[in-house]
Design brief:
With 117 residues, the chain is α/β, with parallel strands linked by helices. The protein contains 4 helices and 5 strands. The chain is globular and about 35 Å long. The two termini are 20 Å apart.
Length: 117
Amino acid sequence: MKILIIINDAPYGTEKAYNALRLANQLNKDHETVEVRIFLMADAANCAIANQTTPNGYYNIERMLKLSLNKGAKVKICGGCADARGLKNIPLIEGTELSTMAELTNWVVDSNKVLVF
């Protein structure tokens, strides 16, 4: 089974990205045969910025994304969204990749389930 998780909100300020990644990491842990795909759109493109620093005891989206990647999830970022937010020359988390709407549509068609946060 292939599950696509689309995240639209910023990494901090709301808990949508946090909860989406909690779900992705639980899927990776409990269902090893499931292919988890994560697509970052709009303000969620900021989730892929490398070297995030958060206060002690506060969740860190970079660490959560890295855990997803280490468990085999594929993480793509809307290239237009990243450009619109000035991320073109900023280091991104290793393993994430800039993508396109065409690739997102292919993932949607090819996925068994699509969840949107």
